[in-house]
Amino acid sequence: MTEETKKEYFELLGFESVGADPAKLKDCADCAMWWKRWLQAAGFEVELAMPPIKDGKAAPPIVLAERKGTEGTSRMLVYGHYDVQPAKVEDGWHTPPFEPVVKNGRVYCRGANDDKGQSFAFLCGVKAALENMPEGNAPTVKVVLEGQEESGSAALMAMAPELRKRLAADAMFVCDTSAAAGLQPAIVAGLRGVSHFTLRLKGPNRDLHSGEYGGIAPNPAQAMAELVASLHTPDGSIAVEGFLDGIEKPTEEELRLANEGAADEKAYEADIGCKPCGGEKGKPIVERNSFEPTIEVNGIHSGYGGDGSKTIIPAEAIAKISMRLVAGQSPAKVFADVKRHLEAHVPDGISLTVEGAAEGAGALKLSVSSPLFRLAESLLREMDPRGAVYQWDGASIPVISVLKDVSGATPLIVGWGQAEDKIHSPDESYSFAQFEKAEEWGRLVTENMI
Known about the structure:
The chain is α+β, with helices and mostly antiparallel strands. The chain has 2 domains: about 5-175 and about 395-445, Aminopeptidase (3-Layer(aba) Sandwich); about 195-245 and about 295-360, Alpha-Beta Plaits. It is built from 13 helices and 18 strands. A hairpin with a 2-residue loop joins strand 4 and strand 5 (about 105-110). Helix 11 crosses helix 13 (about 430-445). It starts with a helix and ends with a helix.
């Protein structure tokens, strides 16, 4: 990495571009402007598309860029996002979360990997390839960078149909996932879909004295515990009627390929600090993470949590719930199934409301026989003699399915993350070695998309 590239990388990381926080809208806009200037300097025509204001709220700008190539050559579409997860020192960071700090060859900062670092490194490789190509022999490169991926991509999903012509491409490149252990290249052949909502339970009209009203008033905190527990059976399988209908089971080839690059239980335990025993008992980790849906409680809040004791029956309880979906599941149907289950199981005396529902997008499943995958295998073997493994990632990038349909492009998802990067967690980081891999990958695919 050159000193100029490092300077630009650190500038990009310095923006507190938390797209889900309305208070950080200016930071997001400033980050989008930074991208506009950088892409213009790389020879792209750039526009900042402003999503329509919805429910009185503005969304971060969408960066749209294009560098026209030689007529008759391939059209590349590069997708990335500049928004990041929230981060505060008190969350457990050992360095200021939006001030890049270098330690032992790694850059510690929110977004160092997800997805500022990965997308910037990839585009640095694209830029280098375009600068060194013979005149009259370059592909057309289109770029779309958004500021809402971490919160559902609502604006880009809504605007995508009107951008059909501008985004039309032959192949779509996404650098927002992980390599296998030891930085062995990994081609992602599938991503889970995602939906999320907030569940609110109300009981008494105020917090009550637990002595005077204990045994009389229903307790929303206890009701929430019972309600979320009802979503699963004792063996960890999902208990919601209809939730598992229509699921496409993986083929024997997909299972074989997924297991070739999978980490074992000991590796997961070392990573997360506890037994990897979530999900349905008796099923292998690869199946539970790559090919099975989930319902997860992201957070529960109720009553008093400070020092000492406050003996109350709380008036309400709130839970944040997300669902990861697999091929064959309809986000709308799954959400309706879960809502119906919750309404049927809410304890007596408690009222239930569902807020902030985002049905999201379905899972993405790609054919392992894709010609683009054959090209990727060849190029990745140039980078690493071990060759590439295949992954069906348990995470989600919901907008990719929408962009695939709108652009007509075949997605190729190759990233260079590692478990030690701790994305979405305190002390997120990305090594210079990973950055250079992503940069080399961007250069190689651009040179071969003639």
